[in-house]
Amino acid sequence: MKDQNCIFCKIANGEIPSTTLYEDEDFRVILDMGPATRGHALLLPKEHYANLFELDDKLAAKALVTAKKVAARMKDALGADGFNLVQNNGEAAGQTVFHFHMHLIPRYENDGAGISWTPGSATPEEMAEVKRLVDEK
Ligand code: AMP
Ligand code: ZN
């Protein structure tokens, strides 16, 4: 299913032009227009799924295999020193476009891209509580 009002549906299906690094029957990988680093790309399914939780299981599996294949090519071609796969779900997690996508972010020594967090601390009680809540589901 496509969503008429979704910009990534239009890009993934070629209605809006993009710089495409890879395409098959299920996915398109495009360059991000606001890149974190040189070569930052987005993997978009051609069908509309708002986020990971809605994504079809078969496509979810294929998304990672496809990301792996394209990321390996990109890393080589661009001489990247490392690579981040980032995938945001929900506003609280930084998602701004509500069509599932994976960020493919080549990393270079000292590139200054801020994909990190300050480690917090968790008490044994908190860890046990989290485990109990998840186990109960
Ligand atoms: P997220 O915050 O995970 O939802 O990521 C959305 C990403 O889409 C951001 O990195 C934007 O720079 C990128 N983006 C939004 N609109 C476009 C567009 N028309 N073409 C390419 N990238 C886009
Ligand atoms: Zn869409």
Descriptive account of the structure:
With 137 residues, the chain is an alpha+beta fold. Helices cover 30% and strands 18% of the residues. The protein is built from 3 helices and 5 strands; from the N terminus they run αβββαββα. It has helices spanning 7-12, 57-78, 124-136, and strands spanning 20-23, 27-31, 41-45, 82-86, 102-107. It has a 5-stranded antiparallel beta sheet with strand order 1-2-3-5-4. The structure holds adenosine monophosphate and zinc ion. Residues 3, 6, 8-9, 48, 99 line the site of zinc ion. Adenosine monophosphate (AMP) binds at residues 7, 30, 32-34, 42, 88, 94-97.
Descriptors:
five-stranded antiparallel β-sheet, 137 residues, alpha+beta, binds adenosine monophosphate, globular, binds zinc ion, 30% helix, 18% strand
Tally the helices: 3
List SSEs in N-to-C order. HEEEHEEH
Quaternary form: single chain
Instruction: Estimate percent helicity.
Output: 25-40%
What is the overall pLDDT average?
97
Strand content: 15-25%
**Taking strands numbered 1, 2, ... along the chain, how are they ordered across the largest sheet?**
1-2-3-5-4
- Tertiary shape: globular
Residue runs with pLDDT of under 50 for 5 or more positions: none
Euclidean distance between termini CA atoms: 30 Å
Largest sheet: 5 strands, antiparallel
Present as ligands are: adenosine monophosphate, zinc ion
Computed Rg: 17 Å
Number of strands: 5
**Structural class computed from helices and strand pairing:** alpha+beta
